């Protein structure tokens, strides 16, 4: 019985691997405000302009942040 379950599991695993196809959508990003980042304003602007997710990312130097919008292209 254990052997049967193992074989069944392997067959189903292979079948699902072959059948399932991932269609990943390309992600794009744009800098909305290079001089600073207010998270709530960044999120709102990104959502309104690109229907995306606005995040504060490092601006390069210590302690500086920029508003970056990540969205589906």
Automatic annotation (TrEMBL):
- Biological process according to GO: defense response to fungus; killing of cells of another organism
Entry annotated with the keyword rRNA processing: no
State the family it belongs to: Belongs to the DEFL family.
Give one Pfam family, short name only: SLR1-BP
Indicate what this protein is called per its UniProt record: Defensin
Give the signal sequence positions. 1-24
The answer, when asked if Zinc is one of the entry's keywords, is no
Q: Any idea which UniProt keywords this protein has? A: Antimicrobial, Disulfide bond, Fungicide, Plant defense, Signal
Residues folding into a coiled coil are: none
Organism of this sequence: Perilla frutescens var. hirtella (Perilla citriodora)
